[in-house]
Amino acid sequence: MKTATRFMHSAMALAIAMLFIQCKNNTGQTAQTTESPAKSNVTSSNRLPIAYVNLDSLLVKYDYAKELNEKLIRRQENARASFNEKARELDKEGAEFQRKYQNNAFLSQERLEQEQQRLLKKQQDLQTLGQRLESENMQEQVKMQMQMADSINNFIKEYNKNKKYEVILNNTSTLYIDPSYDITNEVVDMLNKRYHAKK
């Protein structure tokens, strides 16, 4: 569960960075063009041409984000189960070695040392496996975060072609935003429709 939360927060941070880049690019482009429809509407209604997305809610409600999170959790559970199985095998062999040692069951000192070396090698292999599995899980997590951030970023670009906002913010880096600027539910609904249409 801790990893899932870390995944969601990491994905959120990546999506935030991409959204800020998107907003900065859009602001530079809008400054060069004539007054957009959103600007004229904003002036007449005294509303700013901005919106925000609640990223926590988006990541909880976006089906693609949920699917990626579940996939990551399954992968981590499988890796943990595989590692734990090998660790149990090593523990059994270590206990058997200890029993033989205490009962003087080794035929020679050389045979005792060979068995010690074999168990040490197996322990080192297990540590290497643990590090490799952790590294693979981290790489997969980064890959999934990038996929999700890319999905959200591409959608926001398409979404804003019609909406003409100058800035689309996220709520995680602000102290207060008028709730009437919140477009989260609309964005989530459209993201989910697009995601299921692609499936």
Biggest sheet strand order reads 1-2
Percentage of residues assigned to helices: over 70%
How far apart lie the N and C ends? 27 Å
- Write down the CATH topology: Protein Binding, DinI Protein, Chain A
The coarse overall form would be rod-shaped
Number of helices: 6
Q: How big a fraction of the residues is strand?
A: under 5%
| Number of self-contained structural domains | 1
**How many beta strands in the DSSP annotation?**
2
- Following the backbone from N to C, one meets helices and strands in this order, namely HHEHHHEH
Detail the poorly predicted runs.
Answer: 13-21, 23-44
The averaged pLDDT comes out at 82
CATH architecture descriptor name: 2-Layer Sandwich
C-alpha-based Rg, rounded: 27 Å
CATH superfamily: Skp domain
CATH class: Alpha Beta
Coiled coil: 73-132
Family: Belongs to the Skp family.
Signal peptide: 1-17
Protein name: Membrane protein
Structural write-up:
This protein is mainly alpha-helical. The chain has one domain (2-198): Skp domain (Protein Binding, DinI Protein, Chain A), CATH 3.30.910.20. The protein has six helices and two strands; from the N terminus they run H-H-E-H-H-H-E-H. The chain has helices at residues 2-32, 37-45, 55-61, 63-102, 109-163, 184-198; strands at residues 50-53, 167-170. A two-stranded parallel ribbon has the order 1-2. The longest helix has 55 residues, at 109-163. It starts with a helix and ends with a helix. Keywords: Coiled coil, Signal. GO terms for molecular function: unfolded protein binding. It holds the Pfam family OmpH. Residues 1-17 form the signal peptide.
